[in-house]
Design goal:
With about 475 residues, the protein is α+β, with helices and mostly antiparallel strands. Helix content is about 25%, strand content about 25%. It has helices at about 1-5, 10-15, 20-25, 35-50, 50-65, 95-115, 120-130, 160-175, 330-335, 340-345, 360-365, 440-445; strands spanning about 150, 180, 185, 195-200, 200-210, 215-225, 230-235, 245-250, 250-255, 260-270, 275, 280-285, 295-305, 305-310, 355-360, 365-370, 375-380, 380-390, 395-400, 400-405. Strands 1, 12, 13, 14, 15, 16, 17, 18, 19 and 20 form a ten-stranded mixed beta sheet that branches. Residues about 330-350, about 420-450 and about 455-465 have low confidence and may be disordered.
C-alpha cells in the first residue's frame, strides 16, 4: 500500500530531475497543484530522515524553478492546456495565484531546513511582490491568473481556489519576515515590522523601519533589559548589485555578499542599531519562451526583486491608484477564467511593444521619474514608461517588450530537445512519411497541425508521431 500511496516511481523521477514528472504526470491534469504533493515529502524527510524524500523535494524544486517559472517568479504551468518545459507562454493563461502560494509554502519549508541558503527566501520575496500582491484587485477581489502581457484579469470574490490560497498567504505574511533560531534571528524580508523573542531567558525585541521596495534604506533597533549575546543574520539578496556594507551604531561592522546571510554575532545592548542600504539596480533578462516576436527579442526588466512593466506614458499617472468597482459587463468578462488568455484579453496580441532601443543600452537609458519611486522614463522613447507590475490595475501593459538586437549578435543555437523549434526558426530534420506533409515534425511541434491537447499524448517528437 505504501508503495502506491507515496508513488515511488514519481519520487525517483523527481530525484532524477525528469521534466515528465511534472508536465506529463499521468493522473488528473498536471499543473501547479503538484507542488502540494511535493511539499509533504519534505515533512516525510523531517520525520523519517530518509534521504529519498529530500532528493525528490530538491528535484521537484529545481524542475519548477528552471522549467516552469517566469522572469519575476510566477509559476508558468497551469491547468487545462499543456505547458512543455520552458514554454513560458505569455498569451495563454498562466501564473495561477495558487501556484505561487504553494511555491511560497515549499520554499518556506526549505528555508526552515536550510536557513543559510538565501535562494529560498529570494523565491518567497519574488512571489509575494510579483504575484500575490500584484494579483490583489482592491474591492473586486483576487485575480486568478498572473497575466504578464496585455491586461490583467479582473479580480473575483467567488470562492475560487486562488482567492482562498491568496487570502491564506496574506494572513501568513508575518511568518516570512523573520525566522527565530536557538542562537538568534534571521532577517529574511524587509518591511516595517517588529519581533520579540526569548533567548537565554531574556526578552529581545527588534524593530525594523524601511520604505522598501520604494526606498533601499533599512534601519533596525534592538531593545532589551540587559546586554545579551545573540546572532542576528541579515539577508543580502541575490539580486543585490554589489556587496552590502552593514553598520552597527553608525560604524561599519562588516560587508555581506549577494546571495548570503551575514551573521552579526555579538553582545548587544539596549538601543543598538543596525543600518544598511540594499544595493538595488535594474536587471535585464532575456525571455526564452514560446511567444516570441518577428523582429527583436523580448526582455523582462527587474529592479531588485520587483518586476517592471511597460505602459504608455499617457496612462502612467494612473498606475498605482486603487481600482474602481466593475460594471456588470466587466463582471461577466471576469468569469472567462478558464479560456485562453489571448481570447479573454483581446488586447494582448497587439502588445508586444517594440522599444526602439538596443538591448545593450536600455539600462543606461532608464531615468527615474521624480516623485514616483520605481517608475522610469526611457531616454529617447517618450511614449512608454516602466512601472512596477504590482501597481498595474487595468492599464494596457507588457512585462516583455521587444528590444532591437545588435547585428553582431550571434544567431541562437537551437538544441535537439527544444520543444519550440519551429517558433525559433529551426528547420525540420525529419518529415512526416506523407509527401504532402513536408516539414511535418516542425509543424506538429509548433502546434499548427497538433492542437495543445495533443501534446498531452507526448506527440511532440517524430518518434512518437503516427
Amino acid at each position: 500500500i505504501q508503495r502506491y500511496y507515496q508513488e515511488n516511481y514519481w519520487l525517483e523521477m523527481l530525484a532524477q530531475r525528469d521534466p515528465a514528472a511534472i508536465w506529463q504526470y499521468p493522473y488528473d491534469h498536471p499543473h501547479c497543484y503538484l507542488l502540494t504533493s511535493i511539499t509533504p515529502y519534505l515533512d516525510q524527510y523531517r520525520s523519517s530522515g530518509e534521504k529519498k524524500y529530500l532528493e525528490a523535494v530538491l528535484g521537484g524544486w529545481e524542475l519548477y524553478h528552471t522549467q516552469w517559472q517566469h522572469i519575476g517568479g510566477a509559476i508558468s504551468i497551469c491547468e487545462v492546456f499543456a505547458y512543455p518545459p520552458k514554454s513560458a507562454f505569455l498569451n495563454l493563461m498562466n501564473g495561477e495565484n495558487c501556484g505561487s502560494s504553494f511555491w511560497i509554502s515549499l520554499n518556506h519549508g526549505l528555508h526552515q531546513l536550510f536557513p543559510m541558503e538565501e535562494k529560498y527566501t529570494n523565491e518567497i520575496e519574488k512571489s509575494l511582490y510579483n504575484v500575490l500582491i500584484a494579483n490583489q484587485d482592491g474591492p473586486n477581489g483576487i485575480r486568478y491568473h498572473t497575466n504578464l502581457n496585455g491586461r490583467k484579469e479582473l479580480g473575483t470574490a467567488q470562492n475560487t481556489c486562488c482567492e482562498g490560497q491568496g487570502t491564506r498567504q496574506f494572513g501568513s505574511l508575518p511568518e516570512y519576515i523573520y525566522s527565530v533560531a536557538r542562537d538568534g534571528l534571521y532577517v529574511n524580508l524587509f518591511a516595517n515590522s517588529s519581533i520579540q523573542w526569548r533567548q537565554v531567558r531574556r526578552t529581545i525585541k527588534l524593530e525594523m523601519n524601511t520604505e522598501f521596495p520604494f526606498r533601499p534604506e533599512v534601519k533596525m533597533r534592538l531593545s532589551m533589559a540587559a546586554p545579551v549575546r545573540t546572532n542576528i543574520r541579515v539577508r543580502i539578496p541575490i539580486w543585490a548589485a554589489a556587496a552590502m556594507p552593514i553598520h552597527i551604531n553608525g560604524t561599519l561592522a562588516t560587508t555581506g555578499q549577494p546571495g548570503t546571510y551575514q551573521p552579526l554575532d555579538r553582545v548587544w545592548s539596549d538601543d543598538d542599531t543596525i543600518t544598511f542600504t540594499l544595493p538595488m539596480a535594474p536587471r535585464l533578462s532575456l525571455y526564452t519562451g514560446i511567444d516570441q516576436v518577428p523582429t527583436g527579442r523580448r526582455y523582462g526588466l527587474e529592479y531588485g526583486p520587483i518586476l517592471l512593466a511597460v505602459v504608455a506614458t499617457a496612462v502612467a499617472d494612473a498606475v498605482g491608484k486603487l481600482p474602481t468597482s466593475p460594471t456588470p459587463e466587466e463582471r461577466t468578462f471576469a468569469r472567462m477564467l478558464f479560456r485562453n488568455t489571448a481570447e479573454a484579453t483581446p488586447d494582448s496580441n497587439i502588445w508586444p511593444v517594440y522599444l526602439q532601443v538596443n538591448e545593450q543600452e536600455i539600462i543606461q537609458r532608464l531615468q527615474p521619474v521624480p516623485g514616483k519611486p520605481l517608475h522610469f522614463n526611457i531616454d529617447g522613447v517618450a511614449q512608454y514608461q516602466y512601472v512596477p507590475y504590482f501597481q498595474i490595475n487595468d492599464e494596457l501593459f507588457t512585462c516583455f517588450p521587444a528590444l532591437k538586437t545588435p547585428e553582431s549578435y550571434p544567431a541562437e543555437t537551437v538544441g535537439s530537445n527544444d520543444l519550440a523549434l519551429a517558433r525559433k526558426g529551426a528547420i525540420a530534420t525529419s518529415d512526416s512519411e506523407l509527401p504532402s506533409e513536408s516539414g511535418g515534425t516542425a509543424k506538429i511541434i509548433d502546434g499548427i497541425i497538433a492542437n495543445p491537447a495533443n501534446f498531452t499524448a507526448n506527440r511532440w517528437h517524430s518518434a512518437n508521431t503516427p
